Structures are given as structure tokens and as C-alpha cells.
TrEMBL record:
The chain crosses the membrane at residues 56-86. One of its GO terms (biological process) is defense response to other organism. It comes from the Eukaryota. It is found in: Membrane. Residues 11-20 have a biased composition (Polar residues). The keyword Transmembrane helix applies. This is Late embryogenesis abundant protein LEA-2 subgroup domain-containing protein. It comes from Anisodus tanguticus.
Amino acid sequence: MADRVHPSAKLNGNATNPTTKLPPKNQIYNPNSIPYRPTQTTYHRHNRRHCSCRRCFCLCCFWSLLIISTILLLAAIAGAGFYFLFRPKPPSFSVTFVKITQFKLTTTDDDTTRLTAKVNFTLSTRNPNKKLIYNYDVVSLMVESNSVVLANGSFTGFNNGPNNITIIHSTLSMVSQVLDADSISSLKSDLKRKNGLPLKILLDTMVIAKMDKLKSKKVGIRVTCEGIHGKIPIGKIPVMASTTNAKCKTDLRMKILKWTF
């Protein structure tokens, strides 16, 4: 068989090659066009502004931290120097006398039980420092028995000088206080004890420490005296409470926002 020869296809001027793709109109290459390049002035100006803002922020943070650290360091040095130079000691409290002069539980027709009580006591506070003075605000006082308030009151503010002992005589009272069932049950149970009611004396006040021209800020303190047992009056004769095992503890009271610690 003779081989057949196919004539090659000729492209005329109007024909297009089906395998050739034309570029889109917006991507047609123009040899005379110049590509856009940002000028060096614009680039450096933006970079310089960014570096300047960041540098100012870093400097502000550095100086702020340095100043705060310096203040804290100076305060720590001053506090340490004050402590080692004067050796300040906290005040001490003690109970010397307690007597329940009135105690009465009254139950009305509507089954409401009311308490009327009066307590006399004497506290002493000692300032063991040689140069430090304690200035006390008005003192709030309260007597409790197993969380049941028996009497409360207040005492005027006073100054306690160096190596000085201040005596506080106070009479606290409670008139017709309504008691709940748990409080009544607790009191009646404690009244049957041989040594009487377990008593707790609470003292709350604000104090300022002074020495020459130096003065601290007001600091709250709470004094809790426990280990006291008192008997109710026999007829009209009150009986002195036992204070042999009485001990008082002093705690700082710091207030942060709405919470007191």
C-alpha cells in the first residue's frame, strides 16, 4: 500500500493557533511602562515614625519602673533602719477584773425571749517602747459568750506614752435584746456549768504611732481576750469572774476595698 501524504495546514493571516493563549487585557506586557516603586523618602519617614513611638514607649516604661523600684527600695531601707534603731514593739493588753452585775432572761406572752445584762471590767494596756507613743481613737468594746452578745459599749480615745500602763475601766450593757432559739439554748446550757459563762472581750480601735516629728498612718487593731469565766449574780450580789487563765491577743485590721482582714 502506498503511504498517504497529508498536506500540512497553513495558517492564513486571519486564523489563530488554537494552542496559543493570549494574555488578558489587563496583564498585557507594555515594554514602555515603568513599575511602581515606593520612594525612599516615604518608606524612611514611616519607619522613622514607628521607631520613634516605640522608643518613647520603651523609655516611659523604663523610667516608670526605675522610679517605682527606687521608691520601694528607699522605703524598705527607711523601715529597716527605723526598726533596727528603735526596736518598736506592739502594745500588750491584759484583763484584771470582770464582773457580771446584771443578767436577766425574760420570756413574753408571744414566746419572745429578751436579754438584759450589764458587765463591769477593767483592762490594762502597756506600751513597752522607750520613745514610741501610741494614740488611740475611740475604743469599741463588746462582751460575748459563745458568739452571743451580752453587752457592748465604747471608751474614749487616749494616749499611751513610752513605758506607760493605761487602765481602762468600763461598764457595758445590753437592754432587752431579742434572742433566737440557738442563742437561748446556748446560754441556758452554759449557765449550768460550775465555772459559769465563758466570756470573750473584744476591743476594736484605730491607733497611730508617734515619735518626735514622725507619725504613722492610722492602723486598725482588734484585741481579743479569752479564758474568762463569769457567774451571774446571786440575788443582788454580783460574783467576780475568774480571770486567772485570761489571755489577750492583738491583731492588725487592714481594710482593702470593702473587705476587712
